[in-house]
Amino acid sequence: xxDQTPPRKPxxxxxxxxVPMLKIVEAGIVAWxxxxxxxxxxPVLHEGDRDWWPWTCVAGMGLGAIGWVYLRxxxxxxxxxx
Length: 82
Description:
Elements: H1 21-41, H2 53-72
Helix pairs in contact: 1-2
């Protein structure tokens, strides 16, 4: 496999790398939702001293939703908003 980018000259500024932030935030929300399902299905994970674990997943999804709205409104990485 060969690199298709031309070699960079010394002293030439680096180009910023585009990072798809919306997809990353969406993946995080899905991961928290999956963790919530797992903690609710397995009784040991939400009983006794671990009764706060499902709420952690809910908080993760909520904060991810706030970040998703923030990015969709054109803030953060505005190139991702479609």
